[in-house]
Amino acid sequence: MALVAALAVALALVACQQLLPELIGPDDAGAPDTVVVRVQGLPDDLEPALTLTGPAGFEVDLDGATSVGGLPAGTYRLRVHDVEYGVTTFSADPTVVEAQLEAGRSATLTARYAPDRDGARAALARLNTYRAAVGVPAVTLDEEATLPHWLHARYASKNDTTGHFEDPSLPWYSDEGDQAARASNLSYRWHWRFDGTTGGVDHHHESWIDSFADAPFHFFSLLDPRVASMRSAWFAAELSCDEVDWITPPYPDGCHVLRATGVVQAVHGDDPWPAGTTVLFPGRDQTVEIVDHGPEYPDPLTACPGFARPVGLPLFVMEEPVGAWSDGV
Questions:
Q1: What average pLDDT does this structure show over 7-12?
Q2: Owning domain of residue 45
């Protein structure tokens, strides 16, 4: 009787071992009876927050891309939780993805994160309001391609630097951020406090779009009728006054700067400039609440001798590029 009981226990243990899932890592992606979990859209220094569920109450929390082996066939779902980094919320859409695992095969589930989706959608709405007013088609939002833009916003804010490039010798450099900087419109905000309290930076995505509306050399690309989509991201960093070189001591304890960077890229589609299309800004009967021209580099006033700030909102006309300008405005 004891021998029978021992055999029953041994068989039960073997059965449990066969059903016990195993984190086998990305190198075994595609192995039989395996769910492969992939992660997109997060910086390398930020871990995802994931929950994988499956048949018979199976559930495991994951903090990175991996493969889970030894699984029975059935339906598996990956729940993608928000993760925070400073002022940024990285989220997924959809937040739950599902795959059917067949016996002896593998299935893949991908968590697709993007930074500040709500803010980027607000920026899209604001840009499309401007585009509708000047008579050009609305654009879409390339949400899941915005990580490089966020990486550059973080680099520029934390290093308190400007420019359409990144210095590999500085912290927070990335190849992707450098490429995004070279292809995008950039805007900067500073807000400093000397009393140790936190101050506000107007970081709403709509305000980043508005900041380009009074900067014609930047707004040209955003109102180009050939543009099909946009990518938008921002980041703000709190820096002590010791970390910036444009505030000189002495300054009181608690002095700090909130530095924000907005990165907006207009992405061209495959269509040429629509024949006979002329873009006027402001558009006919358009009301624009911006009444002056802010600083911009290069400075449009260099071509207008005798003009100096303060000056009003720049007015401009865009027509079909010809000759050497056929690839741009």
A1: 38
A2: 22-114
